[in-house]
Design brief:
Length: about 200
């Protein structure tokens, strides 16, 4: 598979960057935590993207590492790197803006879990939108392996940004529509159905 090598290199590089950033954050006395999203402050809109690459400790990062690696690799493999990057951007924006609009006052939100939920949603519905049997099957496997994460998109734990999870999930579904496979348009004069 010609897409496999770029996909795994991209995801390993991404994971490496996240761990490097958390190392810098730890050594600097958590100076990077200021790039988390604090809701409904206009100056914080610039933190919507960087917040997806930062975490509050190595435990937080470790919890996101494996699902991000697996789901990201599968999505990049199936869609190609360029489309995958577009999908991730839609997810980050949806998750981050959702947090900015709805999170509890005086909270600070960061982490890649919004992207994890978004990739889960994207892979879950992509096959149905594109009408591809293989991708429907992949979505079914993803649902079996990671389906329990949907509980994290509900307001059940005040210490977890369910808003980031929920809007990340919705962003993944949106991205599946935005980046769906385009069918070739009918040429002028073409007919649909049997010709008499």
């Amino acid at each position: 598979m010609s897409r496999a090598k770029p996909a795994i290199f991209l995801m390993l590089g991404w994971i490496g960057l996240l761990w490097l950033l958390e190392g810098v954050d730890t050594v600097s006395g958590h100076a990077l935590d200021t790039f988390g999203i604090q809701p409904r402050e206009f100056g914080e809109l610039g933190d919507v993207i960087p917040a997806a690459f930062l975490h509050f400790g190595f435990g937080h990062l470790a919890a996101n590492t494996l699902p991000l690696l697996v789901l990201g690799f599968v999505a990049a493999l199936r869609t190609g790197i360029r489309r995958f990057l577009g999908v991730v951007l839609v997810i980050i924006l949806a998750s981050g803006l959702g947090v900015w609009l709805t999170a509890a006052p005086h909270s600070n939100t960061a982490g890649a879990s919004g992207v994890v939920f978004g990739l889960f949603g994207y892979l879950l519905v992509r096959g149905f939108i594109d009408r591809k049997i293989l991708d429907i099957g992949i979505g079914a496997v993803v649902a079996v392996l990671y389906g329990s994460i949907v509980w994290g998109a509900l307001p059940t734990d005040s210490g977890i940004s369910w808003q980031g999870h929920l809007f990340g999930l919705l962003g993944g579904v949106l991205a599946a529509f935005v980046f769906r496979s385009r069918r070739p348009a009918l040429s002028p004069g073409a007919t649909v159905g049997p010709v008499p």
